[in-house]
Every structure is written in structure tokens, then in C-alpha cells.
Amino acid sequence: MERVRQMNEKMNVLDVQLDNCTAKDAMKIIAEYMQTEELNTVDIVTVDTLMRATQLDGMKEELEKLDLLLPGDMAILEAAKITDRKRIQEMEDQTLLKMVFHYFHKNRCKIFILAGSEEEGDRLQGYLHEAYSGIQVIGMKAVPVNKLFLPREIHAGNHTVYFSAVDQIGDPVILTFVCRYC
Predict the structure, then answer these.
(1) DSSP labels, 60-87
(2) Tell me: the pLDDT tens digits for 142-182?
């Protein structure tokens, strides 16, 4: 993981330091995290979140404490002047989220979903069952969106998924998601 970490540069957008790596490198880091016992946090942020971070005391510092803080929309890549076609395509296709779901599917991970409402959790669970049947959803808890850990918007299929943290605390994996139809 050190080699991947060394390749992982930073980008500064709205005075927040984000990790600047490809989806493949981010997935390698996440896979390494999944092999450890410690709690690791991964967040994919939108420009709206970064704007809020400049307005709310302590939010910028909290974001930068995350183990992996990744851009989640085109506006961030544009602000960071990233023009690499591969990176732009990864953002448009939401490649990292697909890779994370594929990893969980392939490794038959058990997950627990924290969702903004029971309906949203049920929709996400249905999506995962349909698209990634190897993922075992062992539970779901509805938590108001403002109580979830810094949710971020990601598009997956015909859903908008807010992706916040991925980690494995023993077994199962804890995912924070809120989803709704686009």
C-alpha cells in the first residue's frame, strides 16, 4: 500500500486537500483497508460539500482527517484543473463506486446499510441484490441524513447514492448510504 500511497498526490480545491488518484489506485487503497483491523474512512465529496466546509467551523479539518478523501463530481476536477481524459471518464462513469460494489460482490462481503430512510435503504438493498448479488446485506438502519457522516452524492444505475464511509469492523462491512431515484 505504501507504493500506491506514494503515487497518491493531493489536490487543493476551495482550500481543502483531497487525494488525487485514479479509481484503480483508490480501489487498491480501499482493498488494503479492508484487510486491516483498524477503522478507515473513505469519502467521496462534491463541490457543494467543499463549499460547506469553507463555511462551517471545523468541517474542513474533519474532512482532511479522513484516510481517503476523493473528488465526487466534475466541478472538483475542473477546479483542480485536471484534464486527463481517463480521470474525467472515471468521474462520469462513477467507476470507483462500481469497483467498490464489484469488490464487495466478488468477495461476498456482508454489509450493513445506514440509510436516510427505510424506503431509501430498501431501494439500495434492491439495487445491490439485482446488480451485485454476491453482496450480503445483513441489516439496514434508517438514520436522518443530517446524522449520517458527511454524505456525498454518487450516481449508480437509476439511483443516486450518497456514499460516505467504507470499512470492515470485523464482519460485516459498514456502509453509509442514502439513495433515491434520479
Answers:
(1) HHHHHHSSEEEE-SHHHHHHTT---HHH
(2) 776 554 444 443 334 333 333 444 433 344 444 554 333 22
